[in-house]
Amino acid sequence: MIDPEAPLNLIDFGVHFSGDRVQGDRLHNQLLTLPDQPSSWALDETGTVQELARRSTRWFQSMLCRPVVLYVWLHDGYAYAARYVLADTDETISQCYNDHLAPSGQAEELIAAGHVYGKDWIQTVGLPVPDLYLHIRGDLDEAVMNNIRAATKRGPITGVWYE
């Protein structure tokens, strides 16, 4: 059973200081390096050490306040896909898709439409509107949510899962 109160690590983000410059963004989860291409919420500032510390603090505070939700897709009573998103921008944090539990033929349609990454990892952005969402953290007033019902309980998804 998954404990809904247990700590959940969804994304690694941080800052790198170098001289009079600070850069912040999502970090590689093992190497703690910045991405080659900055994301839309990257920090890149120059200034004194004190200025950079204040700007970094504000950036961390803004990142920690962003709303996060978990979208879930259901088929025949089972969750076959899930995606954690920054709900103010609908930006994917992490996702999973189980083609064995998905509707028949859907995986092939998604692959044919180009909704894959890497070694044929099916991306949930190609799926229809999620069946439900779970509020994880942050202010839902800033969330971009359309015609999705809220859920109150969590449950495991067979196979790869991020909880």
State the main characteristics:
5-stranded mixed β-sheet, disordered C terminus, 163 residues, 15% helix
Mind explaining what this structure looks like?
With 163 residues, the protein is α+β, with helices and mostly antiparallel strands. Helices cover 15% and strands 32% of the residues. The protein is built from 2 helices and 10 strands, in the order E-E-E-H-E-E-E-H-E-E-E-E. Strands 6-5-4-9-10 form a 5-stranded mixed β-sheet, with no helix packed on it. A 3-stranded antiparallel β-sheet has the order 1-2-3, with helices on one face. The N and C termini lie close together (11 Å). The C terminus is likely disordered.
With helices defined by DSSP (H or I, 4 residues minimum), what is the helix count?
2
Class based on secondary structure composition and strand pairing: alpha+beta
Please outline the major beta sheet.
5 strands, mixed
Kindly state the number of beta strands: 10
Poorly predicted ranges (pLDDT <50, ≥5 residues)?
Answer: 158-163
**CA-based gyration radius:** 18 Å
Strand order of the largest sheet: 6-5-4-9-10
Quote the distance from N terminus to C terminus: 11 Å
Order of helices and strands: EEEHEEEHEEEE
User: What is the overall shape?
Assistant: elongated
Helix content: 10-25%
Strand content: 25-35%
Mean pLDDT: 84
